[in-house]
Amino acid sequence: MITQRKTIYTFICTLLFGFTSSIYAQHISPLEGRWDLEMDFMGKTSPSWLEIKHSGTATLLGRFVFAFGSARPIAEIETYGDNKFTFSIPNQWEPKGSDMIFHGELDGEELKGTLIYTDGSIIDWTGVKAPELEYTENPKWGKTIDVFNGKDLSGWHVDGKKNQWVVKDGILTSPESGSNLITDEKFQDFKLHVEFRYPEGSNSGIYLRGRYEVQIVDSEGYEPSDIYLGGVYGFLEPNENASKPAGEWQTYDITLIGRRVTITLNGKTVISDVTIPGITGGALDSKEGEPGPFMIQGDHGPIEYRSFEVTPLKN
Questions:
Q1: Which CATH fold topology does 145-312 show?
Q2: Could you identify which of 3, 23, 173, 297 might form a hypothetical disulfide with 205, taking C-beta atoms 3.0 to 4.6 angstroms apart as the criterion?
Q3: How many CA atoms lie within 13 A of 142 on its CB side?
């Protein structure tokens, strides 16, 4: 009798699992996934990012990263026609106006569509599936490179007309808001060691491969957050706030292999081998499958560096 009951129970469970799996499979939309976008915004190509996933069996939701700002949640994505969709996003740092209205459709393996901006202007965009990035389980590291030589800006260039960056007494300094500073050399997988300092109330950041911002901001004593020191802006929250007070030298030791990042702040590992979902606001591009430079944010507040060392993965 016990054996018979177990057989019946196993049969029912198998039926239920198969039925649930069938419903689940029927509601997987070809729109789902992470998409690297390019937008025709303000006369240039601006990188953006979109994630679409299902909730339950019928609802689509997601996250959106515009040319600036943090990742924004999408409460619901409406679908219609053949793989067409729409959603709205409240403004964040954009000029005041209406919500941004996003229209898109799947065309083969690409997305395309329009974005109605807060002022009513229409922005065209295209998107491709974010690529898989290979993770090396037991990495072998190459020779460490002093990207900042302690003397001048050799190996770096700015992204704007105003170059406020100076080197004095071995310190790389952005004394005021101006241009971001970008390495001439590009990197794929690496370990990064930097020593930095900022004055009270300042805000900056380091973009890994020019796409993923590790936040630098005066946030000592605050609750941990992805928008504070130690976080990947808008995506990954540190497990503790290991910040020192403004005016003191601090260190980042960051390892990025594929999409997986480990961040050690002032000797404490605050993010350990976690996947970065996508590009953050202010990225140089959305070409995630390619190597990219380091970019130091200089368009916010003052920041100083006395060390910037990169150890690339050995080929």
A1: Jelly Rolls (2.60.120)
A2: 297
A3: 14
Nearest partner of 230 among 219, 220, 238, judged by Cα? 238
Do the two domains 33-129 and 145-312 of this chain adopt the same fold?
no
> According to the CATH classification, is domain 33-129 in 3.60.140.10?
no
Would you kindly state where each structural domain of the chain is located, as residue ranges? 33-129, 145-312
Half-sphere exposure of 303 (CA within 13 A, CB side): 27
* Whether the Cβ atoms of residue 170 and residue 150 lie closer than 8 Å to each other: yes
Q: Would you say the C-alpha torsion 270, 271, 277, 279 has a positive or negative sign?
A: positive
pLDDT in tens, the chain (315 residues): 444 554 544 444 444 444 343 344 446 789 999 999 999 998 899 999 999 999 887 789 999 999 888 999 999 999 998 899 999 999 888 888 889 999 999 999 999 999 999 999 999 999 999 999 999 999 999 999 999 999 999 999 999 888 999 999 999 999 999 999 999 999 999 999 999 999 999 999 999 999 999 999 999 999 999 999 999 999 999 999 999 999 999 999 999 999 999 999 999 999 999 999 999 999 999 999 999 999 999 999 999 999 999 999 998
